């Protein structure tokens, strides 16, 4: 066995001067090559274009004009507020509902297989389909939701046509579509918790609520971290569902930073939209990097 | 007592899930049963007449059986990309979580950047053309791998923390090579996460629209989401066919999910992960 | 369970392989294969398929593969990307006018000025596919369109109304329709692009009053917010909203709803481009005789005229490796047989721009109503997007706001001027 290890070390994959680490950096290599060449390289190269007026066919260097223009966009402030609201609402609801559903679906409950499938099914359906479906269900006069409300004597609001409500309606649909993903990640986390812990807790006489609080919750932290990060970043960047349902409207009422950038890109303002992406990137980094540091530090604590 | 409470809980869960989830699905299914004129009304109504079969035939045969070509392309794309992503990202996540070096911060930032920054389409096409990968299915596989790595790495990095370090250290002391430690000991323990990851990534890649549109032009290269555009345009949409198509292309990811969902359940009951 | 799944998958796979071999077999049987890129959508594809079928029958040595792309601004991006990366199809269909100018025709498209068939293409179309060096780079694909107002003839007959020649008459008609308990004006902001019609279709009236507007607008000296005549389009939208003429669900209704409402009499007027006629024929063939059309009225009955949209063009990128075959196909589309193939597949929605092309005798009334504006003594003029390269991308959001009472017309016009400024800067026009 020792001989075999020697020969493996002789293969010149990575130069290892000292004692070989059991966690070799060569494990990074294939992923790093693909990711570096096909994503990082073109993406960072394109940042140059944020300093140009770019038609895709040619580019003129204009310094920081694009950034000045982007920051002067008439709906940028509203877009910023909408973006943060949207990300907080969707990621918050996905964490809470995802955890509750996962606990429910890992407990001894009837029709568990059916419930899991049904909760996850929206993740499988294309955004276009979900967008059209809910636009129809949320129709102010003929939509099913408002017709159902009318039966119990409530006049339903214009979910997507009322400027102050549109963003929240889309956020709810986003949660509907995405909560299955959060639930599955949580289920994977809960399943990974060794049964002995619950056993020990039960022997110590703790109630179901206590074992949730002191066993499940702390031990599925990795799942929580993942769900928070992914849904928060996803929420900050999202535009496809907003685009499918309201196109940022009515007017500009449900615009987020990402949908503003997307519209600029669609309009052919390629330099401007690249500058917008830089701004959005900085915004996300400012919010997410401290968040990850916080989450990671507490992880190291335990 | 506990039995009674679970009974009520189950009943409530089933009713709520039916209202919240089944009604919207049933809308999609109902649309697939309607004819064009009724579907155009876009209301939640019972189909007049049974048009499902003629809708399916029309959707499948449109544009020289484009949907079948698309199913084949998307399947190859999905299987190849997901396999690569799962293996490569688990390797990165493993080392990233286990080995603390001063580069970890930078690596993590670059990974997060992949979640935060949208890819730059035109420079990527230039690059693919330079590499001779533009318009090739394997070129798109590599693109999908690159774009899915960050999510997948973060997922693994988080969950590898739940596997006790002593386990791989013991194996190392026994003289196992890092390669074996990872593939024989760590990866099997990550099965629930891997299953989750496979499901999530296959759904995302199978349903990807933008990347095939730009990096893999041409009818022979169509993928499933592109077929939706056969029935939907800026000015006219055949909603019955559109929803039939949506329902049809949802079936393969549904099968993947149902299959792997049982795997998660199996993992639970067998207590596959032991501390 | 798993076994059946596997078997089904295998069957599907085998069927797919068969289909694939069939496809490749077909393409090898011919000597030249062209690719033809068009925007998606059932009617456009049907027209393209008919054109290809009859062209292939006349040219058995050429085989054409139709490829589709998304429409709208997503499609604009795809076309630009494929041109910029030299991966464009051999022939493609794309807008004429300002969008045509934005794809750098001089740099990317084959010069078609000296093709023999250009002699039969009307000058009005040649102008909108002419690059800045004066060369013609495209051929017309489709028929000319008008922007104006569809109306329900049954409601007009029932209430004894006549087709309005001025805006005041139009509003008077609306008042009577509303008094009769009907929806006077249909709006469909569920498809935001439909909200722009009152503004865009008013352009004939602007140009009749101020012939220099387009030139001054391009130069940056005429603005919607400061030019009272140009601002009228926004005002008209606000007036109809303020008067409460719209259908109750105007914020959520879609384009298809609008067509149904004006055809069935659920609504009396629907401002739209006349390409909608073929869609009404396809969806509501029994109701088509109820639908008429008139130009958006201005303030002077003597100057009543129609704002006209030119059809798309078809173009050949200079990266094609099959130039001769591509030219043959373009020549076919620009011929009388080409027009006939289009009419066969999609019906007639308006006059073609090829000399010698005629419309069938039994066209729908909405088309008949449109023809006098094109006949001798009729008045028409191109929409602003064919006279100036600048069209602000946010117009449809702004008109939704004005048409929903969120923003007053004057504010909307000022916001649109801001939007236009960005576009002009992007184009690098002088004076901005």
Automatic annotation (TrEMBL), chain A:
Keywords: Cell membrane, Membrane, Transmembrane, Transmembrane helix, Transport. Gene3D superfamilies: MetI-like (1.10.3720.10). The chain crosses the membrane at residues 27-49, 84-106, 118-138, 165-191, 212-233, 278-296. It holds the Pfam family BPD_transp_1. Residues 80-291 form the ABC transmembrane type-1 domain. One of its GO terms (biological process) is transmembrane transport. It comes from the Bacteria. The keyword Ribonucleoprotein does not apply. It is found in: Cell membrane. It is a multi-pass membrane protein. GO terms for cellular component: plasma membrane. Belongs to the binding-protein-dependent transport system permease family. This is Raffinose/stachyose/melibiose transport system permease protein. The lineage of its organism: Bacteria, Pseudomonadati, Pseudomonadota, Alphaproteobacteria, Hyphomicrobiales.
UniProtKB/TrEMBL annotation, chain B:
Pfam families: BPD_transp_1. Its main location: membrane. InterPro entries: MetI-like, MetI-like_sf. One of its GO terms (biological process) is transmembrane transport. The chain crosses the membrane at residues 7-33, 70-94, 106-128, 140-160, 181-206, 239-260. It is a multi-pass membrane protein. GO terms for cellular component: plasma membrane. Residues 71-260 form the ABC transmembrane type-1 domain. Keywords: Cell membrane, Membrane, Transmembrane, Transmembrane helix, Transport. CDD domains: TM_PBP2. It is found in: Cell membrane. Belongs to the binding-protein-dependent transport system permease family. This is ABC transporter. It comes from Devosia psychrophila.
Automatic annotation (TrEMBL), chain C:
SUPFAM superfamilies: Periplasmic binding protein-like II. This is ABC transporter substrate-binding protein. Pfam families: SBP_bac_1. The keyword Signal applies. It comes from the Bacteria. Keywords: Periplasm, Signal, Transport. It comes from Devosia psychrophila. One of its GO terms (cellular component) is periplasmic space. Belongs to the bacterial solute-binding protein 1 family. Residues 1-29 form the signal peptide. It is found in: Periplasm. InterPro entries: Bact_solute-bd_prot1, SBP, TAT_signal.
């Amino acid at each position: 066995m020792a001989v075999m290890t020697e020969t493996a070390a002789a293969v010149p994959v990575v130069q290892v001067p000292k004692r070989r680490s059991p966690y070799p950096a060569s494990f990074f290599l294939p992923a790093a090559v693909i990711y570096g060449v096909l994503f990082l390289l073109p993406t960072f190269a394109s940042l140059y274009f944020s300093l140009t007026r770019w038609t895709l066919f040619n580019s003129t260097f204009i310094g920081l004009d694009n950034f000045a223009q982007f920051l002067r966009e008439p709906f940028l402030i509203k877009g910023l507020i909408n973006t943060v609201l949207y990300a907080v609402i969707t990621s918050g609801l996905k964490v809470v509902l995802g955890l509750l559903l996962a606990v429910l679906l890992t407990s001894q409950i009837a029709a568990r297989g059916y419930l899991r499938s049904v909760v996850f099914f929206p993740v499988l359906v294309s955004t276009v389909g979900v967008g059209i479906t809910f636009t129809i269900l949320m129709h102010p006069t003929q939509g099913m939701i408002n017709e159902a409300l009318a039966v119990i004597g409530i006049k339903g609001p214009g979910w997507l046509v009322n400027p102050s409500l549109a963003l929240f309606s889309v956020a709810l649909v986003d949660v509907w579509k995405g909560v299955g993903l959060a639930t599955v990640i949580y289920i994977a986390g809960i399943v990974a918790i060794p049964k002995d812990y619950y056993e020990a807790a039960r022997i110590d006489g703790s109630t179901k609520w206590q074992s949730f609080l002191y066993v499940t919750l702390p031990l599925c932290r990795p799942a929580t971290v993942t769900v928070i990060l992914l849904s928060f970043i996803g929420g900050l960047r999202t535009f496809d569902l907003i685009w499918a349902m309201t196109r940022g409207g009515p007017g500009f009422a449900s615009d987020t930073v990402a949908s503003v950038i997307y519209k600029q890109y669609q309009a052919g303002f390629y330099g401007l939209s690249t500058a917008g992406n830089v701004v959005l990137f900085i915004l996300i980094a400012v919010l997410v990097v401290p968040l990850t540091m916080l989450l990671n530090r507490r992880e190291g604590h335990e | 007592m506990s039995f009674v409470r679970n009974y009520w809980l189950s009943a409530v869960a089933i009713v709520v899930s039916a209202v919240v989830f089944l009604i919207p699905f049933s809308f999609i299914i109902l649309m697939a049963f309607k004819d064009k004129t009724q579907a155009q009304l876009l209301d939640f109504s019972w189909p007049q007449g049974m048009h499902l079969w003629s809708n399916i035939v029309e959707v499948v045969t449109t544009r020289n059986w484009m949907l079948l070509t698309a199913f084949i392309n998307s399947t190859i794309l999905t299987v190849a990309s997901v396999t690569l992503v799962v293996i490569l990202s688990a390797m990165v996540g493993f080392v990233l979580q286990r080995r603390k070096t001063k580069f970890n911060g930078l690596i993590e930032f670059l990974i997060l950047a992949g979640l935060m920054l949208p890819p730059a389409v035109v420079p990527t096409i230039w690059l693919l053309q330079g590499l001779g990968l533009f318009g090739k299915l394997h070129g798109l596989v590599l693109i999908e791998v690159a774009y899915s790595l960050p999510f997948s790495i973060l997922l693994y990095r988080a969950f590898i923390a739940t596997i006790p370090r002593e386990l791989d250290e013991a194996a190392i002391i026994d003289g196992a090579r890092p390669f074996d430690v990872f593939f024989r000991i760590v990866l099997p323990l990550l099965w629930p996460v891997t299953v989750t990851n496979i499901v999530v990534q296959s759904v995302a890649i199978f349903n990807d629209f933008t990347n095939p549109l730009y990096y893999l032009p041409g009818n022979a290269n169509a993928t499933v989401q592109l077929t939706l555009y056969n029935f939907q345009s800026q000015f006219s949409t055949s909603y019955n066919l559109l929803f039939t198509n949506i329902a049809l292309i949802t079936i393969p990811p549904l099968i993947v999910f149902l299959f792997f969902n049982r795997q998660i359940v199996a993992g639970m009951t067998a207590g596959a992960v032991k501390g | 369970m798993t076994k059946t799944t596997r078997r089904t998958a295998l069957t599907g796979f085998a069927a797919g392989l068969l289909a694939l071999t069939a496809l490749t077999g077909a393409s090898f049987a011919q000597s030249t294969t062209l690719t033809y890129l068009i925007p998606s959508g059932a009617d456009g594809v049907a027209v393209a398929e008919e054109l290809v079928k009859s062209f292939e029958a006349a040219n058995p040595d050429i085989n054409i593969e139709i490829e589709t792309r998304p429409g709208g601004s997503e499609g604009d991006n795809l076309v630009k990307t494929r041109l910029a990366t030299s991966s464009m199809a051999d022939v493609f269909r794309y807008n004429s006018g300002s969008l045509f100018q934005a794809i750098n025709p001089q740099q990317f498209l084959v010069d078609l000025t000296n093709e023999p068939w250009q002699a039969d293409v009307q000058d009005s179309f040649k102008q909108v596919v002419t690059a800045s060096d004066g060369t013609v780079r495209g051929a017309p694909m489709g028929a000319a369109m008008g922007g104006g107002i569809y109306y329900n003839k049954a409601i007009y007959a029932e209430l004894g109304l006549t087709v309005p020649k001025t805006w005041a008459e139009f509003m008077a008609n609306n008042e009577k329709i509303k008094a009769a308990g009907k929806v006077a004006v249909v709006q469909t902001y569920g498809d935001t692009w439909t909200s722009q019609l009152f503004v865009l279709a008013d352009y004939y009236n602007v140009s009749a009053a101020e012939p220099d507007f387009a030139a001054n607008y391009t130069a940056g000296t005429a603005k919607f917010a400061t030019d009272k005549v140009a601002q009228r389009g926004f005002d008209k939208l606000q007036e109809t909203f303020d008067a409460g003429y719209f259908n109750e669900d105007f914020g959520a209704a879609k384009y298809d709803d609008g067509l149904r409402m004006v055809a069935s009499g659920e609504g009396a007027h629907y401002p739209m481009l006349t390409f909608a006629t073929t869609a009404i024929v396809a969806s509501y063939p029994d109701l088509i005789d109820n639908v008429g059309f008139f130009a958006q009225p201005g303030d002077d009955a003597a100057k009543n005229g129609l704002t006209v949209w030119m059809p798309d063009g078809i173009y050949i990128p200079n990266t094609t490796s099959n130039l001769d075959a591509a030219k043959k196909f373009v020549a076919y589309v620009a011929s009388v047989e080409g027009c006939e193939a289009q009419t066969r597949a999609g019906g007639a929605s308006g006059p073609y721009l090829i000399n010698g092309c005629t419309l069938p005798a039994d066209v729908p009334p909405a088309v008949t109503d449109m023809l006098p504006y094109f006949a001798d003594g009729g008045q028409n003029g191109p929409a602003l997007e064919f006279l100036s390269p600048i069209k602000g991308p946010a117009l449809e959001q702004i008109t939704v706001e004005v048409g929903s009472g969120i923003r007053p017309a004057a504010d909307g016009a000022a916001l649109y001027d801001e939007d236009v400024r960005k576009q002009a800067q992007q184009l690098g026009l002088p004076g901005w």
